[in-house]
């Protein structure tokens, strides 16, 4: 673990031991202009990053949504038109307390732009602040390990958020009974379906909103796609967890379930504490509340007034709190435009994804390079997905391969799983899982958790 260094507040002289802690102190006790903390929305009219984005933002990309729904329903004629966006909350990173977790499990948020003047992915209570500190972000290659001390001011400086941040159900005490029943009866439930292959009918068991076998199928489709120069994929056991047809606003939870599908299937660290099963939405809420009790990103409780049994939006902050609270190692990276090289955020994101999958890959020659790495939790303004691979095409363009919990796998995709041969246009099906520059350039900032 890196040695601690003292940092003194220029206003009151108090001693802190990390860039993050001193920024938290400055925001809480010495806000700009002498004002108390206020929301991002109050200080700027620019459509920049906010904690949570209301679902009404779906209307911004309505045409793209329609196109994507057609694709996922198997409409081949319209399948190439895919480019979608959906909305979901964003909450950022991190208050970690070394007292409760071994120091080797704690990773500090890092950015691909060390020289920027504004904190990009901060805890929600810090997002207003601009600073002239040049070394706020940790090294973009090596993640520093930092010891944090419990500090009551992290909660005292937080304010209750509303519908613009937590969604249309920001003030509900309990989700409706019909939704509780739906989640308990249909979420993760295995069903038996009939499949006809080579003239023979057989019964198979599938979990419609937690599909297995999608990664191996994507490998086959990418192999047959002539436009693919090379591609990387994560561990083949990762499931595509998607929403149920009547639910909404649970994308953050669904991405956590995708991440935990890797942990459970590979029996990685955290498998036992998860009970060797993918946690339900209710389990995840309990884990997050427990993590807040332990002091991990505990400002979230003040801002949300608790999430247990509700439909309030969650994001990266809550995902990180849960994993750290369970002793599962993770790190968060904030990515924004580099002010030195002028490299846009989406290019840095694509580079980060390729670096991640290629770093420990023993195979750098094959067209499709299958790894045993976990997927990456991926957040941009208004929505989150899970990165399960990276693709470079013959024309030089690059794509993220993602699982988007907003959409379930089409019946045509499900029918291709385990088939001996695939006689289809691979690009028509891959479009649902590709996110290229055309989509990513809409956003100026990203956050990934791995």
Automatic annotation (TrEMBL):
<protein>
    <recommendedName>
        <fullName>UFSP1/2/DUB catalytic domain-containing protein</fullName>
    </recommendedName>
</protein>
<feature type="region of interest" description="Disordered">
    <location>
        <begin position="134"/>
        <end position="172"/>
    </location>
</feature>
<dbReference type="InterPro" id="IPR012462">
    <property type="entry name" value="UFSP1/2_DUB_cat"/>
</dbReference>
<feature type="compositionally biased region" description="Basic and acidic residues">
    <location>
        <begin position="157"/>
        <end position="172"/>
    </location>
</feature>
<dbReference type="Pfam" id="PF07910">
    <property type="entry name" value="Peptidase_C78"/>
</dbReference>
<keyword id="KW-0378">Hydrolase</keyword>
<feature type="domain" description="UFSP1/2/DUB catalytic">
    <location>
        <begin position="229"/>
        <end position="449"/>
    </location>
</feature>
<dbReference type="GO" id="GO:0016787">
    <property type="term" value="F:hydrolase activity"/>
</dbReference>
């Amino acid at each position: 673990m890196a040695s601690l260094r003292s940092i003194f507040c220029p206003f009151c002289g108090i001693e802190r031991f990390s860039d993050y802690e001193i920024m938290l102190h400055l925001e809480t006790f010495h806000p700009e202009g002498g004002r108390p903390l206020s929301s991002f929305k109050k200080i700027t009219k620019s459509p920049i990053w906010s904690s949570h984005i209301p679902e009404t933002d779906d209307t911004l990309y309505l045409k793209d949504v329609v196109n994507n729904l057609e694709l996922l329903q198997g409409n081949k004629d319209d399948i190439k038109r895919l480019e979608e966006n959906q909305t979901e909350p964003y909450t950022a990173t991190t208050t970690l307390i070394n007292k409760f977790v071994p120091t080797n499990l704690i990773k500090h948020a890092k950015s691909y732009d060390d020289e920027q003047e504004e904190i990009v992915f901060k805890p929600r209570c810090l997002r207003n602040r601009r600073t002239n500190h040049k070394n706020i972000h940790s090294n973009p290659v090596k993640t520093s390990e930092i010891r944090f001390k419990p500090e009551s001011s992290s909660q005292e400086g937080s304010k209750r958020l509303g519908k613009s941040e937590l969604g249309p159900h920001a003030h509900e005490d309990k989700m409706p009974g019909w939704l509780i029943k739906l989640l308990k009866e249909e979420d993760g439930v295995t069903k038996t379906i009939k499949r006809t292959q080579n003239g023979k009918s057989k019964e198979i068991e599938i979990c419609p909103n937690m599909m297995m076998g999608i990664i191996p199928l994507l490998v086959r489709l990418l192999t047959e796609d002539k436009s693919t120069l090379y591609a990387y994929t994560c561990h083949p056991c990762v499931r595509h967890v998607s929403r149920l047809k009547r639910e909404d606003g649970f994308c953050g939870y669904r991405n956590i379930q995708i991440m935990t599908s890797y942990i459970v299937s590979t029996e990685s660290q955290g498998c036992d504490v998860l009970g060797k099963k993918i946690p339900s939405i209710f389990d995840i809420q309990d884990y997050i509340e427990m993590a807040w009790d332990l002091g991990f990103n505990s400002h979230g409780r003040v801002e949300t007034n608790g999430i247990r049994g509700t439909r309030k939006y969650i994001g990266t902050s809550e995902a990180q709190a849960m994993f750290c609270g369970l002793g599962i190692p993770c790190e968060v990276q904030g990515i924004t435009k580099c002010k030195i090289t002028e490299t846009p955020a989406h290019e840095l994101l694509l580079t980060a994804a390729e670096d991640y999958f290629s770093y420990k890959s023993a195979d750098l020659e094959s067209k499709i390079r299958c790894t045993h790495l976990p997927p990456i939790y991926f957040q941009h303004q208004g929505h989150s997905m899970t990165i399960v691979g990276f693709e470079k095409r013959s024309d030089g363009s690059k794509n993220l391969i993602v699982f988007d919990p907003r959409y379930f796998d089409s019946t045509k995709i499900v029918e291709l799983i385990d088939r001996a041969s695939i006689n289809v246009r691979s690009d028509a099906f891959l479009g649902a899982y590709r996110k290229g520059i055309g989509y990513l350039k809409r956003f100026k900032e990203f956050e990934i958790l791995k």
